[in-house]
């Protein structure tokens, strides 16, 4: 099974730090898991405008194919201006509506205030619901007080929640695997 740890921004390092911790926990719990770390800042991204996948540049095609072929996702996003980054929404616009169906997704996010966690509920989850993902019920939100001045995660409660998120995600991954024989028979 292949999972993608998706850093949904092209700036900053806090989401990378959270994904690094999750990566460690998943590898500890499931050493044979194939994990691909996808950091959007490492791609030559194009604005999605509805053209066929093969009409985008090589990086966009690779990114789209990586997302569509994964068995599950852990998405990390900062909250900017009360919303997810445009670059993450742009990626979602490039993905086939059927590609993420019944695949598990866990969410980790960072933001500048305690209230920014609402973006997960009011913006990100509805997008993932549209894709009919198996969204885990626990997400992890971190704010500046959880990081050191040099942006290292320095909060045991957040680390414990990331460990729990990893465990729940792996259970959902199994649930998604159990659904796979039926995916082709399920109606839209």
From TrEMBL:
<dbReference type="GO" id="GO:0016491">
    <property type="term" value="F:oxidoreductase activity"/>
</dbReference>
<keyword id="KW-0288">FMN</keyword>
<protein>
    <submittedName>
        <fullName>FMN reductase</fullName>
    </submittedName>
</protein>
<dbReference type="Pfam" id="PF03358">
    <property type="entry name" value="FMN_red"/>
</dbReference>
<dbReference type="InterPro" id="IPR051814">
    <property type="entry name" value="NAD(P)H-dep_FMN_reductase"/>
</dbReference>
<dbReference type="InterPro" id="IPR029039">
    <property type="entry name" value="Flavoprotein-like_sf"/>
</dbReference>
<dbReference type="InterPro" id="IPR005025">
    <property type="entry name" value="FMN_Rdtase-like_dom"/>
</dbReference>
<keyword id="KW-0285">Flavoprotein</keyword>
<keyword id="KW-0560">Oxidoreductase</keyword>
<feature type="domain" description="NADPH-dependent FMN reductase-like">
    <location>
        <begin position="1"/>
        <end position="143"/>
    </location>
</feature>
């Amino acid at each position: 099974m292949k999972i993608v740890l998706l850093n949904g921004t092209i700036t900053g390092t806090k989401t990378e730090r959270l994904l690094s911790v999750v990566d460690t926990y998943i590898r500890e719990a499931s050493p044979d898991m194939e994990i691909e770390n996808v950091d959007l800042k490492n791609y030559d991204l194009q604005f999605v405008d509805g053209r066929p996948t093969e009409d985008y540049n090589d990086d966009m095609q690779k990114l789209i194919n990586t997302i569509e072929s994964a068995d599950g996702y852990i998405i990390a996003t900062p909250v900017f201006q009360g919303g997810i980054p445009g670059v993450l929404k742009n990626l979602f616009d490039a993905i086939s509506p059927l590609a993420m169906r019944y695949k598990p997704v866990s969410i980790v996010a960072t933001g500048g205030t305690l209230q920014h966690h609402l973006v997960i509920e009011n913006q990100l989850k509805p997008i993932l619901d549209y894709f009919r993902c198996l969204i885990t019920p626990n997400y992890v939100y971190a704010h500046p007080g959880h990081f050191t001045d040099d942006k290292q995660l320095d909060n045991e409660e957040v680390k414990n929640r990331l460990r729990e998120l990893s465990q729940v995600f792996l259970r959902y991954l199994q649930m998604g695997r159990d659904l796979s024989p039926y995916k082709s028979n399920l109606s839209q």
